[in-house]
From TrEMBL:
This is Putative phage-related DNA binding protein. Coiled coil: none annotated. InterPro entries: Cro/C1-type_HTH (IPR001387), Lambda_DNA-bd_dom_sf (IPR010982). It comes from Ligilactobacillus salivarius GJ-24. The lineage of its organism: Bacteria, Bacillati, Bacillota, Bacilli, Lactobacillales. It comes from the Bacteria. One of its GO terms (molecular function) is DNA binding. CDD domains: HTH_XRE.
């Protein structure tokens, strides 16, 4: 589960639908990735960070919590 990304997404009021639109994928796919059922690709992570969270490092946003 990507707790940091989920929390920062909530803080900035960014929806999973917005991220899905950015990555040209389904909202359910984003939900699966946020919840640890699958993983974001490196390119997807960079895109999300650059567009929505430029003030945070990738290592922080995409740290997996068990």
């Amino acid at each position: 589960m990507l707790v940091n990304l989920i929390n920062e997404k909530k803080n900035k009021k960014i929806t999973s639908k917005q991220i899905a639109n950015l990555l040209n994928t389904r909202e359910a796919t984003i939900s699966d990735k946020l919840n640890g059922k699958s993983r974001f690709s490196f390119d997807e992570a960079i895109t999300i960070q650059k567009v929505f969270f430029p003030e945070y490092k990738l290592e922080y946003l995409f740290k997996h919590d068990e």
